[in-house]
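Hello again, I could really use a second opinion on something today. I owe you a coffee for this, so here goes:
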Amino acid sequence: MKNKSIHEFAEVVASNSPVPGGGSIAALCGALSAALAEMVANLTTGKKKYVEVESEMNEIKNKAMALRSKLLDDIERDSYAYNKVMEAYKMPKEDDEQKILRNKAIEESAKIAAEVPLDVAQTSFKILPLAEAVVARGNSNAVTDGLVAAMLARTAVLSALLNVRINLETISDKDFVFEYKNRADVLQEETLFYEKKILELSPF
């Protein structure tokens, strides 16, 4: 999936196939967010004006590159998780034994389908401190790129959390649902707060 051209990927998303869907797009937003933070760091290093933050920007580049790579892989990972859910729903249910096996498969696949986007959300959240750093101390000519990175990270987190929540609707394990709902709620609140803090650094 990640090796498709932008045009090809958009065509697949626009088709009548349910994958790649919102979860994969959330991962893509996160990857683009990391790429923008990395870009601003690249535009900062090697400049005499920013020699004092050279080491910090190099560290940001390395972190952003790793996050970008992981989130690109998560585009495919989310689609795979969704496909496993669909496979479970297509299992036969003609007798009690088949119904039990089908229900178990649905439960297990739904848990994975909730775990993957939560991981995407948590990974995307890690971009926010990088975006904050490049906005606050990076090349001032690219400050808006850093701000867009923050906004895309927010979108990635909140979009992924929507996918967590919809999958929780089909899970009967109450402890699992409670834990994941709570983790999603906390992460959403922290993300919105962090984005607001970064946007307040904007000179515009």
About this structure: The chain has a mean pLDDT of 96.
